[in-house]
């Protein structure tokens, strides 16, 4: 009864109007905002963690092509100046972006260090491994694993996001890669996989703080994460490579995630590390913490 879909996710957009294959950079942050470059576009959006003062003067922030805020609602300013879609490349992964009604773009660039780690784990396994990506959103981790040579199962409860991820796979010339695209509820799927005897050597999950499924099912990370990890243990292979757990929930710290991994997998004697995920820019730009991760590896 666990939904993968976050409230507010939108269907995959269908019309490309521009491309820019340059990547991502954090430009500045402060006063509860972040200024970021996605390809050729400069965007200002909310950032609750950035309680410090901005480094750049306000006139630099006013150069943003568009901005988003949540003052009295969900508000884009200058949205008409944005293309319906554009394409960027972040750490050799091509992604199709679009400004959604909720201020999201279809990528969480703080995950790019995890994408590198996934690729390294897959390539260094010495064999083709099977990777399960739960709560998979637009597929950055799926693409990182597939680039490394893994067989991947990509699962999300939103069909629109699954379609978006498949389109990203095509952008990366991975449309023929061994990727299963599944739209389903996480716990229902994990239960079926366990009964079928299907096992995975690597598991990636980025559960929502709060999610609601199409039939009204509710996921709360503080209540349900333990069960999710227990069910992941049921589908972990006898020769595991890694489990990567990340979260964007206030109060869920790297230590919390490490303890959760040790609860679920500690008897298998993994090596566990953890830390903050960061939005980063050029040298001298203050990184912005944006969630945290814990990683178990064998």
Can you characterise this structure?
With 298 residues, this protein is of the alpha/beta class. The protein is built from seven helices and 16 strands. The strands form four sheets. A seven-stranded mixed sheet has the order 10-9-8-11-14-16-15, with helices on both faces. The chain has a five-stranded mixed sheet with strand order 1-2-3-4-5, with no helix packed on it. Strands 6-7 form a two-stranded antiparallel sheet. The chain starts with 23 loop residues before the first strand and ends with a strand.
In short:
By secondary structure, this protein is of the alpha/beta class. 25% of the residues lie in helices and 29% in strands.
Q: Keyphrases for this structure?
A:
7 helices, Immunoglobulin-like, Rossmann fold, five-stranded mixed β-sheet, 2 domains, 298 residues, disordered N terminus, 16 strands, 29% strand, alpha/beta, seven-stranded mixed β-sheet
